[in-house]
Amino acid sequence: MADATIDRGSNAILVVGAGLSGMQSALLLAQRGHAVYLLDEAPGIGGSLHLLDRTFPTDSCGLCISSPTNATYCPSIECSLHPNITPLPLAELLHLDGEPGQFRAQIRRNPRYVNTERCNLCGDCADVCPAVRPHPYEGDLAPQKAIYAPPPRAVPNAYVIDMNACIRCGKCVEVCPTQAINLDEQPTEQALHVGAVILSPGYSPFDARRKGEFGFGVLSNVVTSLQFERMVSPPGSTKGKLVRPSDGRTPKRIAFIQCVGSRDQTVGREYCSSICCMYTAKQARAALESQPDADITVFTMDIRTFGKGYERYWDSVAQEGIRFRRAMVSKAKQHPQTGDVALNYVNERGQPQEEEFDLVVLAVGLQPTESARELAARLGVAVDAYGFGDAGEFAPVATNRPGVFIAGCYGEPKDIPDTVAEAAAAAAQAAQLAPRPPSQPQGASPVSAPDAEPAIGVYICTCHRTLQGALDIAELERYAASLPHVVAVGVADDCCSAEGSGRLSEWIKAQGVNRAVVAACSPRLCQAELASAIANAGLPDALLQRANIREGCAWAHRDSPAQATAKAKDLIAMATMRAVHARPVGPQKTAVEEGVLVIGGGVAGMTAALTLADLGHPVTLVERDNRLGGQLHNVGFTAETPNPAQQAEALAQRVQTHERIALHLGASLDSFSGTGGRFQAELRNAEGERVSVTVGAVIVATGGREATVSDHRYGEDSRVLLQGDLSRALAGGHQTLAQSPFGGARTVVMIQCAGSRDENRPYCSRICCTQAVKNAIRLKELKPDADVFILYRDIRTFGMHELLYRKARDMGVVFIRYQLPDKPVVEALDSGLRVAVTDATLNAPLVLEADAVVLSTGIVPNDNAELARLLGVPLDSDGFFQEQHPKMRPLNFMKPGLYLCGLAHGPHFISETIEQAQGVAMRAAAYLSERQRTAKTTRVDVNKRLCSFCGLCVSACPYGARVMDYDERVARVLTDLCQGCGICAVTCPNKATQQYTFEHKAVLAEVDAGVLGM
Amino acid sequence: MRYSYYPGCTLHSTAIEYGWSTEAVCDALGIELVEIEDWNCCGASSAHSLDPRLALTLPTRDLMHVQALQADIVMPCAACYGRIAAADHKMRTDPAWRKEMEAEFQTAYIGAARPRTLVDVLGNDLPAEALAAKVKRPLNGLRTVSYYGCLLIRPPDLTNRWDDPEHPTVMDRILRTLGAEPLPWAHAVECCGASLALDRADVVAVLSGRIVQGANDAGADCIVCACPLCQANLDSRQKGISRKVPVLYLTELIGVALDLPGRTKWLAKHLVDPRPLLKAKGLE
User: Fold this and answer.
1) Alpha helices, DSSP H only, in A106-212?
2) How many CB pairs under 8 A join A and B?
3) What is the pLDDT of residue A587?
4) Residue B87 binned pLDDT confidence (cut-offs 50, 70, 90)
5) Can you state the angle between helices A603-614 and A644-657, rounded to 10 degrees?
6) Those residues with Cβ within 8 angstroms of residue B133's Cβ, 6 or more apart along the chain or in another chain
7) pLDDT over threshold 60, residue A443
8) What sign results for the dihedral spanned by CA atoms A891, A896, A897, A903?
9) Of A321, A554, A307, A311, nearest in space to A415 by CA
């Protein structure tokens, strides 16, 4: 393995860092047909994702959503199964030569000391290993052997040795039944030819020891958020129970301290880590689930829940009885007798207070990894002052080195939806530098044998003879041969190696078997190897059944081989009976169109159109307005870009001249039909003519706008204006400012969350705090003697925007916190305006005399109702479009082939909108590159004769894939939308709905075999 | 081992037992202390609350004075140490200020001598074996808590981090070498109230009271400290405390362990008399 050449040709892409971001980039590129090297320094792919018990705001890990189908939301399993992806664990990129399109990447592969092909995960090695060290994955709160199994979802799933802990005693080598261990394995180097490189090396948590006042590393009952995450995770260090490290007691009073290593000049981490408020909310909820009477306090400066749906999540968690203290903790002391930790802080009344807790959790921030800093230096990639990858506002994933792109937390700390979008954007940029791959070769059409008499072959795998003894293999052979329809029984030592898989194929063909039962390890494992064995033997997937005789029998009943064998017999009988009734279901394929319709010509729509056109797809771009550019014309200026309107012109110029883009200005969508891969759309253009287009995918980029409000005297008094007005006034410097209503203003009061984050618009618009701060800084720069007050509820200048907040305070901008229900009140006087506000920090009323009041009103969506109806896609409760899955599929609609990006999705900064637009283009391109749509093999089907048209399935389906057909009086299946979950099949009272591979007859036969015996 | 020695006002007066024990212990351990000629007040808490310039100029004069010896300056008192370290830091980091001071004292600042506190020297310069070799009466069975106060190792930029500013361990290490049993406790770097003893005795009573109570809760026989003001505050604010706790200077306990003859004189200077405790432990 180590010396094998793995060069996969000129259309290959190298992805460095195989966490969520790297995996997302790799999957999209692989789907489009690129060969992808997915490199990581860790022993497996998955990055930090596997550490997380659950993720906000869905409180799920994703796997459960798709059961019993393939793990469609688990990127590590998807990556491991994709033939175009070559995972390269334990590897480093040493250097990169050449030019975009033809890079030569020199990599080093570090030894694992365990052969992944041979390791069968039996664990005998770890049992005998005498070297114990703290378990880094559990935050050192549990022990681990020097030879250890990676986390359950890791790829590759094989043991690995930590040579720093290994004492080279050789016991594992002796005991390994498959001779998989080689303690003398050496690192190897090799060169890869790639067209582009994506850097997604992720983050490392801030070292909490650097904040000595909190005592991490000294006080045993002070833990980091990552340790806590593992604690509340069922497979984690304490198996999901809350346990105090000092004495094992269940903690009742739990404190979370926010911003540890974030927003902190004393440790050189001035930026905000963006995700900690939300993960604390998630962990607080998990703690309450584990310990319902827990008493939780969160110490925080601001609550920064700025993502889509986050404000509601926070509110719902807060309602569970969590106490918030707006205070910075100055000191933690642990009493050696009780183990309790006393925290010192200044309370809301301004008095110093000491309060005791059982357990303190430090919400640590994120920083670049040390190895990423070194990598950037080796590659000549520019980084910012903190070592994060540097990119620009209008090219948010491009580095200074052409052909090298960045994504994920390497750019700056970010949450999962933003990472998923950015990873797709990086993939879009990388894909443009490698030749477009040819059409995917279609696998040989499976031989279908629906009507032939079942001829079943049972293949028993001894897993490198490790199951011999634990099971009576000869008895299993005899028993299997006695089962009905079984025509052949074979025994093998390994079906999971390439050779073993080949032998299985040959055996199936030689024995004339038309259905196979493989009795081996858990069906979760070795899926790819067995699938290819079955396919090479010419059988459809569905005719393979598996019996779990290893984990389920041999391992679960180590001490009683007789019982284990009896159970194995039952499982083989069940799988055999299931095989008797299995129906071969072939992939249902439909051809797809290449073209894409993009609705909306703002920065999102233009970027998506250009990216798709550059990727070779014909694009139809529809804009309701008579010019392109959307909100870019209204922004005025941004912190990085003096004149965004110019950028709009440059983009528009490229759109208008691109040979693959057909532009329709002043046009709108009139009618829409079809399914993913083939939609028919009718447009009405500016001249009122109807234009028909047929496309494979549609991207919704209809934008949004700055909200207006009816209070704070807006609209009644010309001195009350919006942030957009101020931004435009400031954009042209002294000249435009002098001519604006702000020209003579000496005192400007800004009111944040005007009409936002309240009962009418209960979401945060994400950008307004930064916009206000940016405007305040510019105003102070142009008029240093002006007084600027910003009245806020929480300042949400997340990520690097925090540096602007600091700058504004340094320049003398005054920030005053208010809280609901006491909204600031604006009164008009002859001489000016008077703003009355209750300062929540001083707890005292203040009156400010102002020459102008500027409202931060937030972003509202455009009126999307009609478009949503035409496209058949949902809006969320705030009027933005509702994505398929807020975490793993933020840019997709549930309906295949339909996508969304930009302000249509929710409030975003320009750079985020561009990332989404590039990302959505890559998603559509990857989807259309398959050239054919393949329906799920676990989809459902309806027996019209049995359907009583009751409609239960329609209300049960979570995906809108079941519809009532009033003409035929049958509840149809929209195969494209069906995710194969099987809920409707369970619901159907007449058993008219049948799920492929889970047919009632087959499942019942399986159950009978198990319960009644053969 | 040779050092310039800055005793400060207290080591010749209110904390004379700290001065005596410092000199005796250093002498016994082969640490030569050369008292700075014509040293002046460091300014302590009064100067820097009234006149920031004077607060830096006073200790700068001492720094200028000591350059001839070219040895680190040792200050047992935490306040002296804080002020002189602050003056040294200013001289090293502010070129304009340095120029001004050099003109004022008509001396170039070489900065070869670093301000050090005595605990730093005893814990980090003196090898533990050298100390262990001199121990004649191990402090077996004496349960101690080490009290550094808020200033002895802070702020970290000034103290060059001679110990962890939040979780220091040097005194525990020395005490363990002496045979004592240092206990973990939560108040090692809490503030005793310092000079508020003069105008807000009520505040000091609360702050120092908590520290003494913490030592009591930890089960300590005595508190070990290294600052005259801390010692005075902790020693004098034990009204209402369930069990009175003697507050000893680190140097005094070293003197006991080294069986130095002068210790009877030092130990008689305390408000909470440590002698019954030492007697009970067989260390009189």
Assistant:
1) 124-128, 171-175
2) 26
3) 66
4) very high
5) 40
6) none
7) no
8) negative
9) A307
pLDDT band for A1, please (50, 70, 90 cuts).
Answer: very low
Q: Please give the share of chain A, as a percent, with pLDDT higher than 90.
A: 73
Which chain B residues contact residue A334 at CB under 8 A? 186
User: Do A518 and A459 meet the contact criterion of CB atoms below 8 Å apart?
Assistant: yes
For residue B184, list chain A residues with Cβ-Cβ distance below 8 A.
336
Per 3-state DSSP, chain A is made up of helix, strand and coil in percentages (nearest 5) of 30, 25, 45
Taking the CA of residue A362 and the nearest CA in chain B, the distance in Å comes to 16
Task: List the single residue in B with minimal CA-CA distance to A333.
Answer: B186
Q: CB burial class (10 A; 0-12, 13-18, 19+) of residue A968?
A: exposed
Q: What is the 3-state secondary structure (H, E, C) of A904-968?
A: HCCCCCHHHHHHHHHHHHHHHHHHHHCCEEECCCCCEEECCCCCCCCCHHHHHCCCCCEEEECCC
Look at chain B and count its residues: 284
pLDDT per position as a tens digit, A191-206: 999 999 999 999 999 9
Question: Which residues of chain B have a CB within 8 Å of the CB of A333?
Answer: 186-187, 190
Instruction: Sort out which chain A residues have CB atoms less than 8 A from B217's CB and list them.
Output: 335, 337
Give me A895's structure tokens.
């309906």
Query: What's A655's DSSP letter?
Result: H
Q: How close, in Å, is residue B62 to chain A by CA atoms?
A: 31
pLDDT of residue B240: 81
Please give the Cα distance from A365 to A766 (Å, whole number). Answer: 20
DSSP sequence for B58-71: HHHHHHHHTGGG-S
Please choose, from the candidates A765, A771, A776, the residue with its C-alpha nearest in 3D space to the C-alpha of residue A801: A771
- DSSP H helices, A53-195, are 63-66, 75-81, 124-128, 171-175
Candidates A421, A970, A892, A374; CA nearest to A676 is A892
Res. A975 pLDDT band, cuts 50 70 90 = confident
- Of the candidates B165, B187, B217, which has its C-beta nearest A337's C-beta? B217
Which residue shows structure tokens 């659950």? A54
